[in-house]
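This part of the workshop introduces the protein records we will be handling. As an example, a complete record with its sequence and its C-alpha cells follows.
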Amino acid sequence: MADNSKAPAKGKPNLPAKPYADFPLFAHQTGRWAKKVRQKLRFYGRWGRTVSGEVIPVEDGEKAASDALAEFQRCWPYHSQGREAPDTDDGAFLTLRALANRFLGAKESRVESGELSRTSFEDYYRTCEMLISHFGRQRRVDALTPEDFEGLRKAMATGCNLTTLRNKVNHARIVFKFAFDSRLIDRPVNFGQSFDRPSRMRLRATRELAGKKLFSREEVLLILAALDGHPIVIEGKSKPVTWPRSSVMRAMVLLGLNGGFGNTDCASLPQTAVDLKTGWLEFPRPKTAIKRRIPLWPETVAAIREAISVRPAAIDPDDSGLCFLTERGTRFVRVQASKQSEHRIVVINSLARRFEQLLDAIKVGQRKGIGFYTFRHVFETIGGDSKDQVAVDSIMGHTDNTMAATYREEVADERLLAVTNHVRSWLWPGQREAK
C-alpha cells in the first residue's frame, strides 16, 4: 500500500492513504474502512487494530484493503437501498453466483445428453452473466424483491426490441424457477407485477411497424442471379456489381425457398438425408426434432449435387458427411470455445454473415430484420396460399399441439408436392410442375 499517510491530528491515529485513487472507501479513525451510504456511515473492514488505546495498522495493509473492498461489493446492493446486508455467505442461503453455477451445470448436462443445443446453453449463460452483473454475485436470491425486478426489467429493455426483451425476461424467470424447483430456496421468487413479458398485442404492433419480413419475387430472382455470377445493375452506380459465383450459397438459398430451411437447417444437413435420384429430402428440423419430408425441385437437386461436388475436406471428422462446408472446411453455423473464457462458447454463423454481405452488395432487402432466415417467412407465406396449411407445417417442421396432430400419422406426398410446386410456380411462372 502506498505510504503517504495523512498527518495525524492530536489524539487521532495516522490514517492510511487509499490503495488507489478510485478506491471507494476511506480510512476511518476507528481503524476501519468506511463509506457513507444514504446518509449512514457503513464499515466494511479493518485497516488497524486498537492496542492499549492506540490504533495500530494491521500487518498486511494491502490484503486488508482488498478484503474490505470485497465486503463492500457484497453489501452494496443492500446498503444502497437502505437495507441491511445478510451475514457472510456460509452456505446457509443461496447466492446468485451459486444459483448460476447450479443452473448452468444442469444445463451443461442436457447439452452433453443432446437434449439442449449449445446455442441455447449460450443464451442461458448470457442470462446468468446479466443477472450477476446487475445484482452482484453475492446477492441473496430469496431476498430479491419486486422492486429489484422492476429495476432489472428496465435495464433489460435498454437498447433492445420487444421480442428480445421477451426472451430476456423469459430466460431470467427460468433461472429463478430452477432455484425453487430444485429446492434451493424455500419459496418461489416474488417477481411482482412489473417483471412481465411484453404482451402479444405489443409484439404484433411492433412487427407491424417494422414491416414485412419478406423478399419479393423480383428480389429473390436478383439474389439467385447474383449467386450465378451475373452482373447486377444497381441504381445510382455507374458499373454493375458482380458477386463471385457460389454454387453452395445458391443451393442453400434454394433450400430456403423450396423447403423453408433456415441457417442451422442448411449447416446441419447430412448427405444421407437427401436422395438426389428421387428428389426427396427427409431430415428432422434441428430446433424441434420434428420429422420433415420434402419434395425437392429439379433446380434444388442440381444445385445440391454441384455444391457437394466442390465441397472441401472437413476439418472436423464429424462434419465429413455434411452437404455444405465453408471454403475452410468448417460448418456454416458452428459453436466453439470463447477466447475470453474456457467455460463459454460462441456461435459462428458464417451463412448469415455472408448472406448479409450479398444483400448489402446488391442492395436487396435493406430493411431491419431481413436476412437468410427470411426465406422461412417466404415459404410459409407463399406456401400458405396453396390452402393446405397442414402440409405447409409439415414441411416447415412446425410443432402442432392440436388433437388432430396427435392422430395424424403422416401427410400424403401428393399434398407436400402440391405445396412446393405452388411456391415454385410463384417464383418461375409457366414452369412445368415437378413430379
Observations:
- Residues 96-210 form a domain with the DNA polymerase; domain 1 fold (CATH 1.10.150.130).
- Strands lie at 26-27, 32-37, 40-46, 48-51, 54-57, 274-275, 280-282, 293-295, 333-337, 345-349.
- The chain has a mean pLDDT of 87.
